[in-house]
Amino acid sequence: MCLAIPLRIVSIDGKEALAEIKGVKRSIRVDLIKDIKVGDYVLVHAGFALEKIDKNLSDETLKLLDEMSKL
What we know:
Layout: E1 5-13, E2 16-21, E3 24-29, E4 41-45, E5 48-53, H1 55-69
Antiparallel strand pairs: 1-2, 1-4, 2-3, 4-5
């Protein structure tokens, strides 16, 4: 099973970006997404941004992941 995590783009340098979740920052690749910009939310798996999502979907996904971790 694969799991993609929502992250917010903090900075972009070519095809690499710095993204964060809850204050934790990670370097990711953004090769697969067109028109990416700082502030966008993306789903990330294995270090690659797979698709853009809106903030509401990001928040809901993180809420569900938090609930699952408590089970």
